[in-house]
Amino acid sequence: MKFKKVVALWVLVFLLPGAGWGLTLKQCIEEALRNSPYLLKARAQWQAERPRRLEEFSGFLPQISLEDTLTRTATEAVSPYYQQYMGLELDYNLFQGGGTLFSYLAARRDVEVAYAQYREAVIETAYGVTVSFYTVLEKKRLWEAAKDDLRDAQANLDMALARYREGLAPYADVIKARASVANSRFLLRGRESDYWVALGKLNLEMGRSVTSSVNPQGKLKEESWNVDFSMARREALENNPLVLQAEKELEAQRYRKAQVYSEFSPRVDFQWRYGWQDRSFPPNDYKEWSWQFTFTLPLFSGFASRARLARNRALVDSKRYHLARVKLEVEQDVWEAYQELKRSQANVLSARAHLRDATHDLE
Fold first, then answer.
1. Strands 63-73 and 81-95, how do they pair?
2. At a CB cut-off of 8 Å and minimum separation 6, what does 310 contact?
3. Inter-axis angle of helices 37-49 and 99-165, to 10 degrees?
4. Fewer CB near the terminus (10 Å): N or C of the chain?
5. Rounded to whole angstroms, how far apart are CA atoms 249 and 279?
6. Are 130 and 25 in contact (CB under 8 A)?
7. CA-CA distance, 82 to 278, in Å (whole number)?
């Protein structure tokens, strides 16, 4: 989540009046976290990745199976006969060069990447609702101000007509007043359209239909923040979901590279069998059991492993450069947000001064 988006919320909080009865910002965010398709998709992707840890952990466990075979055998010297075997078989990969371990660790990092993406989606959803919520309040206030402007323009037109009839003003004043009324009506239609567009955007952010009825309730107040740039940059690099996601992706890719290295290592497998062997089927069966260790040293299997190793090395470099790029972008976002915050604070002070001057002129 970009830091400047958080600071943008402070810019929105500036001298807007409260709305009537309806949903508060907290209620809108809670509804969006329950119903937003964008967030639900990210949550489903995270939940889809979580079972991978158990899937990869299964590589550390033995595999047990029940075997039942029926064979018919015939040779030139022996007449045809049936042979049956039924028993248990246990297969266990004792050592695979660390491939199972690295695969499991990579799966864990993939789950953490999915969680970072879900966390980013939560922040994006909350931010989108917040911006849309305050935009609706702003557009509603501007719409109400346009209505006031239209009433003032109509009053000026009535006054200009009265003065013209009394011979106290030229007809040009009437023309000018009528043009002002027309402009006010045009502005009013534009402000009304902006309000309904903003309201539809809020509905979409909350996971509703664009035509749903909602009346945001909120009262914005001015708040002053004292932000230290160095501290903000450090916290952004430590807590930003995009940075965490890039770090976990780099770690996962390193484990995948190590997993390819394990393909060049020897393997040790163990197999154990216990069952019943019967040649005549069904009488005269006898028990049979066996175990064996298998040591496998790969010497040559083409160039597939070497190609995968070269590819994963390049992907590790790509992930490392991507992480460096993300950190630079986050730092740039913090710097822009810091400058935007300073500019908005100056705008607030200037607006407050203009308000005092306007109030003094009315008095």
1. antiparallel
2. none
3. 170
4. C
5. 57
6. yes
7. 8
Please write down the HEC assignment for all residues of the chain. Answer: CCHHHHHHHHHHCCCCCCCCCCECHHHHHHHHHHHCHHHHHHHHHHHHHCHHHHHHHHHHCCEEEEEEEEEEECCCCCCCEEEEEEEEEEEEEEECCCHHHHHHHHHHHHHHHHHHHHHHHHHHHHHHHHHHHHHHHHHHHHHHHHHHHHHHHHHHHHHHHHHHHCCCCCHHHHHHHHHHHHHHHHHHHHHHHHHHHHHHHHHHHCCCCCCCCCCECCCCCCCCCCCCHHHHHHHHHHHCHHHHHHHHHHHHHHHHHHHHHHHHCCEEEEEEEEEEEECCCCCCCEEEEEEEEEEECCCCECEHHHHHHHHHHHHHHHHHHHHHHHHHHHHHHHHHHHHHHHHHHHHHHHHHHHHHHHHHHHC
Q: How far apart (Å, rounded) are the C-alpha atoms in residues 24 and 134?
A: 11
Angle between helices 229-239 and 304-362 (to 10 degrees): 140
Mean pLDDT in consecutive groups of 10 residues from the start of the chain, 363 residues: 42 37 82 90 91 89 88 76 82 87 92 92 90 89 91 90 85 88 92 92 87 74 72 87 92 91 89 77 67 86 86 93 93 89 83 79 63
**Alpha-carbon gap, residue 280 to 286, rounded angstroms:** 11
Q: How many CB atoms lie within 10 A of CB 69?
A: 10
Residues whose CB falls within 8 Å of the CB of residue 25, separated by 6 or more in sequence, listed in order: 129, 130, 133, 216, 218
Residues near 112 by beta carbon (within 8 Å), at least 6 away in sequence = 244, 248
Burial class from Cβ neighbours inside 10 Å (0-12, 13-18, 19+) for residue 336 reads middle
